[in-house]
Design brief:
With 325 residues, this protein is an alpha/beta fold. The protein is built from 12 helices and 8 strands. Strand 7, helix 10 and strand 8 form a beta-alpha-beta unit. 48% of the residues are buried.
Length: 325
């Protein structure tokens, strides 16, 4: 029997027709995908006045983790800048620190934000808490070097897309539980939050080719969980397992036509139930990652503008030091 599912936005449907889609992911296909060229960040930076600094920091186990700091090339700034700590997507098994970097670069343009992006280790080579710990160690470095970087520690935003959204949620939970650093907000873009992969939307988008399917999601989770049993899975790895009290204000968006729709909606609902503040957008007809894949689509432009407008309100709130820009 055919599973009923929300229809794709008509413009996205046309754009996806020209994109090779699959339903399954396996080690052989992953190896091929990892050989594809990475995001050409130079072309995104060439028309911007941006200073780039690449550094490495130590992970908990001593491994070296790459960070790139992208700062507006200004010499006349008198107040510290907001910071966006960006965590890339890729199902926890692929991608690099410049994946989807065009999204936070819009915030560098709009707010004069310093963007810091992290090259966490990938599954299946790294498993368990390694990925989220790598991201957290990078964030600690940012907070510790805030003065040197010209960052306002009261306006650090943790953000990510897909797997990066799930890792951003895990980092935010770690920061809450360990008491540092202070995070002003988390921006979770179609986040990968729940290893159980058992929602209605995960079933609706299984068995059909797509950008990210239920089967691909199961592969990604198996890769990162390794030998962990269900009882051993930390909430920092699968944030849907966590107590969601005392979190910073949260922005979540997702599409109605994607595998993560229901777990993302549930995450926002549980933040509200815990007394927290969350803004949730479910974009009708949006597939997974639509606004990163097809920024030219009308639905994508609207989603990106709405997210940026939310950040503008947040970063200019009374009580935040400095001013936007």
């Amino acid at each position: 029997m055919t599973t009923a599912r929300p229809a794709l936005d008509s413009e996205l449907h046309e754009l996806l027709a020209d994109m090779p889609l699959m339903s399954q992911l396996n080690p052989e296909v992953l190896a091929q995908l990892r050989q594809l060229p990475s995001t050409p960040v130079e072309s995104l930076l060439e028309h911007r006045q941006v200073e780039r600094r690449d550094i490495t920091v130590s992970a908990k186990d001593g491994a070296r983790i790459g960070l790139s700091v992208l700062s507006p090339a200004q010499t006349d700034r008198t107040t510290p800048a907001p910071c966006v700590y960006w965590i890339h997507g890729g199902g926890m098994v692929m991608g690099d620190r410049f994946s989807q970097i065009d999204i936070p670069l819009e915030w560098l343009d709009r707010f004069g934000a310093v963007v810091v992006t992290v090259d966490y280790r990938l599954a299946p080579e790294a498993t368990g808490t390694t990925l989220v710990d790598d991201c957290y160690q990078g964030l600690l470095w940012v907070a510790e070097h805030a003065a040197e970087l010209g960052i306002d520690t009261a306006r650090i935003v943790v953000a990510g897309a897909s797997a990066g959204g799930g890792l951003a949620a895990g980092v935010t939970l770690l920061a809450r539980d360990l008491g540092t650093p202070a995070i002003a907000a988390q921006v979770l873009i179609c986040p990968m939050l729940d290893h159980r992969n058992a929602t209605t939307s995960s079933r609706q988008y299984s068995g059909v080719p797509g950008v990210w399917t239920g089967e691909m999601n199961a592969f990604g989770w198996r890769a990162v969980l390794g030998d962990l049993t269900d009882q051993e899975i930390p909430p920092y790895v699968s944030p849907a397992l966590a107590d969601l009290s005392d979190l910073p204000t949260t922005y979540i968006d997702t599409g109605s036509a994607e595998v993560f729709r229901d777990e993302d909606t549930d995450y926002a609902t549980r933040i509200w139930a815990a007394g927290g503040q969350a803004e949730l957008h479910v974009w009708a007809g949006g597939c997974h990652g639509f606004d990163a894949l097809f920024p030219q689509a009308q639905i994508s432009a609207t989603a990106r503008r709405t997210r940026t407008d939310w950040l503008a309100r947040l970063l200019s709130l009374p009580g935040k030091s400095g001013t936007v820009g």
